[in-house]
Amino acid sequence: MTHRDIVVVGAGPAGLAAAEGALAAGARVTLIDSADQPGGQYHRMLPEAYEATRPEALQHGWTAFQRRLRRVRGHPDCAWWSESSVWALERPDPAPDRDSDLDRDPDRDSDPDRDREQPRPPRVHVLRGPADGSGRRRTTLEPDALVLAVGAHDRVLPFPGWELPGVFTAGAAQALAKGERVVVGDRAVIAGTGPFLLPVAASLLEAGAQVLEVLEANTPRTVARGWSQRPWQLAAQAGKSGELAEYTALLLRHRVPYRTGRTVVEARGDGRVEEVVTARLRPDWSVVPGSERTLAVDAVCVTHGFSPQLELPVAAGCALRGTLGGEFVAVDDDQATSRPGVYAAGEITGVAGAPAARAEGALAGWRAAGGDPDTAAVRRLRRSRDQGRAFAERLARAHPIGAAWPGWLRPETVVCRCEEADYASLCRAAADPAGSAARVAKLATRAGLGPCQARVCGPTVAELNARLSGAPADREAEGLPVPAPHRRPLAQPIRLGELAAAPQPPHQP
Amino acid sequence: MYGTRVVVLGAGIVGSACARELALAGLDVTVVDRGAPASATTAHGEGNVLVSDKGPGPELELARISRELWPEVLAATAERSAHAARAVEWDPKGGIVVATTEAGAKGLADFAAAQRTAGVRAEVLDAGELAKAEPYVTRDHTAALHYPEDAQVQPAGAAAALLGDALAAGARLRTGCEVLGAATRGGRITGVRTTTGLIEADLFVNAAGPWAGELSARLDAPVDVRPRRGDVLVTTPLPPTVFHKVYDADYVGAVGSSAEDLQTSAVVESTHGGSVLIGSSRRRVGFDDRLRPEVLSAVAAKALRLFPSLAGVPVMRAYGGFRPYVPDHLPVIGADPRLDGLWHAGGHEGAGIGLSVGTARLLRNLVLGEEPVMDASPFRVDRPAVLGPNSPENTGSSHRTESEETA
Amino acid sequence: MSPRRVRAESDAVGRQDRPLRITVDGEPVDGVEGQTLAGVLLAADRLAWRRGRSGAPRGVFCGIGVCFDCLVTVGEDRDVRACRRRARDGDEVTTQSRAPGGLVDRNEPTPPPTEK
């Protein structure tokens, strides 16, 4: 029994498993989520007010989830903080100064043992109260270890008309259907890439919408090649495969065409989406000329993969690793990040689905709480986690973003939705040698400066700017971090009055 | 001097302005930066072009010269590129300084009286006039002054415009190029050794902002320029709410202060994008870039004293920058007496954006031996605040060698 | 056709609908308890309610609090993500616009009283 204080941020599959793992190791746990119910996006629950008698109708693994939820929430050492937003993480140790930087061990960043000599994880600054309310209670936690399990959201590439009402992320369509039984339209097209297209189609069909087409942008060859590497790894994800097979059968039953190598390249309409243009794509996602078709729709659901929510790991100072599918938090064999006392689990470390997230979470929670690193159960979790990682890699190979996607863009296409910065303005900034640096271009075009703080357009703008200007990323100057698209020191908005108020003790009712 | 080779070290706003002046004068200019242009201190400031915060003295004189130069410079930029000029977001909105205590009101009145003798326009606003000029500002104030000459720019856009002018005039830009040391001959700097090779020239301008101290140490001619951190809050976009640069009278004291502790004062203004920028804090913490929520909290509390009705407005971003300062709070502009061919242009603390164009003009005057726009001696390198703590016995980190010192 | 709520009678999850009413720019809009403000608006056939810088209409995009497209003012609180906030009976919702002039944002901060 360790009696460490562990804070787990995020109560989806990974966070819940982390809380359970840490409690099992004898820790006291504070489980934090911005939503009013646990479950995250995967187990998005119906509102209590709906008094649903058959909530399991919409869920995979509902029974196991409910069991875990009871064990965690019912545990005397677990505090469940719903409607609580972590708005800042405050690192206790100073940034390494430049002199020590020059002669430091080049392996330091990848050597977590060395970092673990430093004692404390960051202080956790929390706002408690209704989403975006005012006068929420400001409080801070100083855990012995921190587990970040904050998940991911859809990445959506821009295309002409994507800002029209009626164009949704696939996740939005899913959340509305599953979480409050609202269906986004009657004639829907689902487009993008990845297996997530299927459950979204299933949700819409279940809710009574007509799904006209499901469009996977990658060609059958790309998908098949990605999945068929190391096929023995797939067996371990049988649960996931079974789930996907169910969705496929559902599409067949509803006679919904699933087309590969085709996507939505434009949405049109007067004040709302009325039709889409789809086109056949080559493996690099360049449009096959003459293959365009228009289709009357009232909803478009799009996903081009997932963006991990990296603002908290970045604020904590965690090293990231670049992968085929983008940047994720780098973790070691125990899910420890490069920062002392900070663990990461779930989709911020790689997109591998709920089973892998649970394994990672359980391991992270157990180890964060100081649980024995070498039990049979831990070894099993590591194996399961490793299988999940292999699955993630295969997923990324089977559903990459094709390099030629910017061919869809027109000069007037909105790239940054908040500030309505268009592609022409990015091109102009990138062409000016005096103004093409990422930070300067951002201030000039305003792309990424709006309310979403580049959560949606950040990776896209970084990619376009790098391609257009041909410039390497800005170098780090001491004290000033490189302009990473995920850097948001304020992880959530906080009202001035709330910020001005002094923090209150955490465990006061 | 035509064709003299100049290397400007640092592509922030001061380096860009210097490169512009020298390139337009016909010199052969190369701008070197270890990162990308305008990405460090320049991109992390508020874009102040102020006369209101400076008492009579050389810095105010430089500020007034700069304020006159800005419209002229931007008109020339607009000739070259309308886009570049627009990106500067030049806004001669004027400043309003508000005192909330009787002592503050007295201090502000005295300060303004002295400024007026130096030619600054400082107009007293009565309660009605203030309410008209800034409908959302606190009614709980004791004095308010309007400074019509204060202006604001988008600082990275301004630097890009100046650098663009320099490049159009023939200057070259080398980025990702870090200076490692000096090549000297006969007490003269003849080149800089960099991560991408030796760059030779006749003159070198240290415009490295808060890193000027470290850079000059690498060149074996250390100047005492240090970083001082400032944090700024950015709100979500609002309908027009703040119409001038509005700050509390405390700010005037904080600018000139040397205290190591955290100092905050309210500086509130809108940007073209609709967000309100809220400053400011000043902390001497080296190059520590960590977020400090209690600092942001103190800044927010001060701002709410000035604009109570902003309490419900969300802050969506916070950023911090490192401002270069010299212990006597004056810029350093001029030739280095210890190493021929080395010049310095920096140490402007939070005023570098506004003072950049005046600094560049003055530097050009000195380099070319022209009649200077003002007496440059207060900014000279050879003053105790600049060289004092770096006298040989105090420079533990100096790499100075016997031969170089005597050479 | 448009977004709508699955009919409670035929919903596989077997749910109860308890009606609530909010106002949007003063007009009554009906929803059910448990819905987010975004859910209420969508199910009431309102696909867009905010206006961007150019005046272009915006509604829900990401649905999970990431894109900030669906911002509304609730009571005195501006910039509330409609997709994250549960509706409460009687909520007074005001729509927002970032378009300069013309399309007025009704959510300016209240100026302090003119008398000291």
UniProtKB/TrEMBL annotation, chain A:
Region entry Disordered, spans: 90-139, 469-509
Is Oxidoreductase found in the keyword set?
A: yes
User: Which Gene3D superfamilies does its entry note?
Assistant: BFD-like [2Fe-2S]-binding domain, FAD/NAD(P)-binding domain
Q: Which UniProt keywords apply?
A: Oxidoreductase
UniProt lists compositionally biased (Basic and acidic residues) regions at 90-120
**Keyword Oxidoreductase on entry:** yes
Naturally occurring in which organism (per UniProt) = Streptomyces cavernicola
Where is each FAD/NAD(P)-binding domain found?
137-361
Protein name, entry field: FAD-dependent oxidoreductase
UniProtKB/TrEMBL annotation, chain B:
PROSITE patterns per the UniProt record, alphabetical? PROKAR_LIPOPROTEIN (PS51257)
Q: Where is this region: Disordered?
A: 379-407
What are the residue boundaries of the FAD dependent oxidoreductase domain, all occurrences included?
Answer: 5-364
Enzyme Commission number, as recorded: 1.-.-.-
The alphabetical list of record keywords is: Oxidoreductase
A molecular function (GO) term = oxidoreductase activity
Q: Which domain of life is it from?
A: Bacteria
Q: Give the protein name, as stated in the record.
A: FAD-dependent oxidoreductase
Phylogenetic lineage? Bacteria, Bacillati, Actinomycetota, Actinomycetes, Kitasatosporales
From TrEMBL, chain C:
> What keyword terms does UniProt attach to this protein?
Oxidoreductase
Q: From the Swiss-Prot or TrEMBL record, give the protein name.
A: (2Fe-2S)-binding protein
For the region Disordered, give the residue spans. 85-116
Highest rank taxon of the organism: Bacteria
Native organism is Streptomyces cavernicola
Q: Does the keyword Phosphoprotein apply?
A: no
Gene3D superfamilies named among the record's database cross-references: 2Fe-2S iron-sulphur cluster binding domain, sarcosine oxidase, alpha subunit, N-terminal domain
What Pfam family is a match, any one?
Fer2_4
